[in-house]
Amino acid sequence: MNLPVATTRIQKRNVGLIAEAALEVFSSNGFRGATVDQIAREAGLSKPNLLYYFPSKEAIHTYLLSTLMDTWLDPLREVDEGGDPLDEILAYVQRKLELSRERPRESRLFANEILHGASNILPLLETDLKSLVDEKAALIQGWMDAGRIKPANPHHLIFSIWSLTQHYADFDVQVRAVLGSAAGDPFPDAEDYLATMFTRLLRPD
Length: 205
What we know:
Elements: H1 9-33, H2 36-43, H3 47-53, H4 57-77, H5 85-102, H6 104-115, H7 122-145, H8 154-170, H9 172-179, H10 187-202
């Protein structure tokens, strides 16, 4: 992917402003509902100025998704072969919940992209994401084969962690509506619940 022109301090600042504005607009409106005009307004730039850096809405979207992919994959990369298997998996669950809590817009951005066929990031899903998930699934399978955690399908274990943690970002309005305002922050209870659930699922007898 060709990166936007950004060599001077001002150019780098403007690319950062555009990326932040695009994250807000895309996560709120989805790709189809977003426009270059909306992103330019949110960034505080003129439309021609924005188009100097990115020729189209598609280019902004692809850039944003690509640059955020590392952030999204880092928690899985941190699963350590040398650690205690159950501790490592529970730590991964915790890190994914923290991402949902601290970066809900990024979660919704990826969810919208996947729901619409992932045309802008499918090559990354089929390469970077797949290779990392396969690597960690093989590690988890090795722990299971050694009897260090209970057997389960490691790929589907990872998928379930994604769905159960990212739910709190992607469906935040629904979660808070069902729990009610008196419940306050849902994340501490979610962390306790998920830790208990995965411990019961994976702890050896």
